[in-house]
Design goal:
This protein has about 350 residues and is of the alpha/beta class. It has helices at about 10-25, 60-70, 100-105, 125-130, 150-155, 185-195, 205-210, 260-270, 280-290, and strands spanning about 40, 50-55, 80-85, 110, 135, 160-170, 170-175, 200-205, 220, 225, 230-235, 250-255, 275, 295-300, 310, 325-335, 335-345. The chain is elongated, with a radius of gyration of 24 Å.
Length: about 350
């Protein structure tokens, strides 16, 4: 690592420009197979000469966009410093490796805020150093939570899974006669749509699809959002052709099995990094028992039924010592309903 700095390359300025790169990164789509990345290109005299961010799979990466921005304005990239929110990639996919693009641009220094967690794309810093480019990792807090779904998928090889459920205060998901609309009020339902939009896929079982005929789209104030998650229905039961989940409002994938691990493998291969699980009690409990639920979001309504379908199916627990424990990370009141966000502890933990 080259520790030499100029008057324009102080630790404070490095952090400032990296924060700018992170800010640019947030303009990219959060729901994407690729991470959100931003880049700021600075000339040797300290002038910002180019900026860019990744706009989604198949589009130029942030570094390439920043280099193009600089060249379009007539600036020379040789001797410049690139400030990037994530280590430049070392992988050839739909686009070429960003590390090689920076080498070809003859930049003098690259500063990045976080290492690339993907085994496939990592190694860009080594490529840069091998080419004689001073390369520094300068962590900034703002970059830590920039790509939680991508980071999780890179680390585990599967999408992050959020299990959403709605229940009455006594843990019922439906009344004794089978009715379940609506357990929660408008504010909670609007909140569900806001959070559903952060996922690349929404998963339900054929039981839920047949019983409730859900649309599984993202709507805001009743209006369909421009970008929709993939609707996924798992199970062997056939759906009627009139099922709302089969309309053209969003893409739909039918999987004739209910294996959680297989489902996640198929979705990961499709570039899905965050799965929103909205299946009924049996499906959600099966994924939880398989250790494939990373977050639980429960909407609890101040309603008592005393009878009806439970919100969680049998987990095989017969004594308190076997209970599944969760850690609460957030509690929010939504016009009377309560949203509880939890992280499941390892099965058998407490």
């Amino acid at each position: 690592m080259d520790d030499r700095t100029t008057d324009h390359e102080t630790p404070e300025r490095d952090v400032l420009l990296l924060r700018r790169a992170v800010g640019l990164a947030t303009r990219g789509p959060a729901v994407d197979p690729n991470p959100r990345v931003g880049c700021v290109l600075v000339a040797a005299d300290g002038e910002v000469i180019g900026e860019g961010w990744h706009r989604g799979a198949g589009t130029p990466h942030a570094e390439t966009a920043a280099l193009a921005d600089a060249l379009a304005a007539g600036h020379e990239t040789r001797g410049a410093t690139a400030y990037v929110s994530l280590e430049p990639c070392n992988h050839t996919g739909r686009t070429g490796p960003c590390a090689e693009a920076l080498v070809e641009a003859r930049v003098a220094r690259v500063v990045y805020a976080a290492a690339d967690p993907s085994p496939l794309a990592a190694g860009g810093a080594d490529t840069l150093r091998a080419a004689g480019i001073a390369t520094d990792l300068v962590p900034v807090a703002e970059a830590t939570g920039l790509n939680p779904w991508f980071d999780h998928a890179a680390r585990t090889g599967r999408p992050f899974v959020t299990w959403k459920l709605a229940a009455t205060l006594d843990g019922r998901s439906a009344a004794a006669d089978g009715t379940s609309r609506w357990i929660t009020g408008p504010a909670a339902r609007e909140d569900v749509h806001r959070l559903r939009a952060t996922a690349g896929a929404v998963v339900v079982g054929t039981g839920t699809a047949l019983a409730d005929d859900p649309h599984l789209t993202v709507r805001h104030d009743g209006v369909l959002a421009e970008q929709q998650p993939l609707r996924v229905v798992v199970g062997s039961r056939e759906l009627p052709r009139t099922a709302r989940v089969l309309d053209d409002a969003a893409p739909t994938l039918l999987l004739p099995h209910q294996d959680p691990a297989q489902t996640l493998a198929e979705l990961h291969a499709r570039g899905i990094r965050h799965v929103w699980l909205e299946g009924g009690p049996a499906l959600g409990s099966a994924w939880l028992a398989a250790g494939l639920v990373d977050r639980v979001i429960a909407y609890v309504a101040p309603v008592l039924l005393g009878a009806g379908s439970p919100a969680v199916a049998d987990l095989g627990v017969t004594t308190m010592a076997e209970a599944v424990h969760l850690t609460t990370t957030d509690v929010t009141v939504l016009d009377g309903d309560v949203r509880i966000t939890m992280t499941p502890n390892p099965i058998g933990g407490c």
